[in-house]
Amino acid sequence: MSVALEASRVTTPHDRRTTTIGAIMIGLGLFIAVVFGLVVPSWAHSQLTFDPINTAVHAPWHLGALTVETRWTDTLLGLVAVALGVEVVLRHPRRAMSRFGATSILFLLALLLWASRTSGPATVNFVDLTAVLVGSSSLAMVLIYGSLSGVLCERAGVVNIAIEGQFIAGAFLGSMIESVTNNFWLATLAGALAGAFFGWILAFLALRYMSDQIIVGVVIVTLLAALSSYLNLQVLTPYPQFNLGNLAPNLAIPLLYKIPVLGPVLFNQTGFFYFAIVLIAVISFGLFRTRWGLRVRAVGEHPKAAESVGINVVATRYRNVIMGGAVAGIGGVSFMATQGQFQPGYTSGFGYIALAALIFGRWTPSGAVVASVLFGISSYLAGNLQGYSVPIPTEILGMFPYLITIAVVAGLIGRVRPPAADGVPYQRS
To answer: Are 173 and 192 in contact (CB under 8 A)?
Structure first.
């Protein structure tokens, strides 16, 4: 009995990491409560509005502005962050990373309220909550495509670092096709084919010649970044008719788009947004409820055992990496459709953030989606804080999403286990 008791008291590295991140969350919550809350004068107020911009045709039912006391609102947000941190320290939950992401969003929201308060540093004296969520949803959508691409590849045992490059290929070719044909369906098909092609290159080099998958992925990203910049100068700049720029139209769902806040975010979006939701359901069902998914997971966990029961490991990996590339290519087109036209470098490392979301979500579609939403909101808020005259250098604000990415990939907020054969070259016996 005493041996078992002593064994239960042993602190594992995972427990220590979880305790550390919980302590960081508590410290961040106290900072929010004190600096953004209790120190603020009691007469200071912040205003929340709920009317999205550029929705004159499909506007939701109107909600009046909500005025709140900055001190007590931010103090409450800080206490919520402290409570989340205490729970992580005491319970060591499996979803500690999700709580860490939620705390980061609370920090950014509290900072927005603090900056836009009465006599605050911001020139804008309100926070449009609906506009924040709508803007975040477009970034989250792109990250969802990237993370689902990673799920398809890594569940089969191939690391797809090339997601960023497939985004670029899809965005570039999709912009050209859409500009010429004025048809987003053809642009989407072209982007999917471009992503699938570079997925095939990754699979060919990694599976046929057993090249290092990380190096191949980085080379593909570097190649496409340089090639797109060159083609932009040589083709799109002298021939602007190939990069006219069009925003994908929103497809409002009758009545549902009228719901305040949630209506514009979920029911008045582009076809790319709805297709991403369909992909989430299809990939989740396929991976965990079908024979195909069982084979894919077997190949990613124990390829030799899978081969012993007649599963073609190499063919399965080829198919999944090509499908993953196609999904990432569509993600590139969806990003182009929210920006209006192709611009070199405007994917801003989203492919790597999508990979971090994949790790954050423990290689599951649902977890990757939750992580993508958290990263999307964080990225949007960090970018828009610059417009609120926050007394923090814009370079530091721009680093925020990538600091979270580094923390996730490095395992600083909890160690997670990838598929056992992920990234391991396989040679037929």
So the answer is: no
DSSP 60: P
Query: What distance in Å separates the CA atoms of residue 163 and residue 350, rounded to the nearest whole number?
Result: 9
Domain boundaries 135-377, corresponding CATH code: 1.10.3470.10
**Helix-then-strand count for the chain, H and E:** 16, 5
- 3-state secondary structure at position 47: strand
**Lowest mean pLDDT across 48-62, 188-202, 218-232, 249-263:** 48-62
DSSP string, 149-182: HHHHHHTTT---TTHHHHHHHHHHHHHHHHHHH-
Cα 262 off chain centre by: 20
pLDDT tens digit string along 161-171?
A: 999 999 999 99
Sign of CA dihedral 421, 299, 350, 192: positive
Residue ranges per structural domain of the chain: 11-125, 135-377
Of 20-34, 317-331, 348-362, the poorest mean pLDDT is in: 348-362
Q: Which two tokens stand for residue 400?
A: 């925020």
Say what the pTM is.
Answer: 0.90
H/E element, 121: none
| Residue spans of alpha helices (H) in 36-128 | 70-91, 96-115
The angle subtended at Cα 100 by Cα 144 and Cα 87, nearest 5°, is 135
Closest by CA to 125, choosing from 55, 51, 45, is 45
H helical segments located in 184-248: 184-203, 213-231
Three-class DSSP category at 426:
coil
β pairing state of 127-128 and 45-49:
parallel
Task: Tell which wins on pLDDT, 412 or 1.
Answer: 412
pLDDT tens for each residue of 91-113:
888 777 778 888 988 988 898 89
The mean pLDDT value of the chain amounts to 88
Residue-level length of the chain: 429
- In the chain, the amino acid numbered 389 is S
Please tell me the predicted confidence (pLDDT) of residue 8: 43
DSSP 8-state secondary structure symbol assigned to residue 128? E
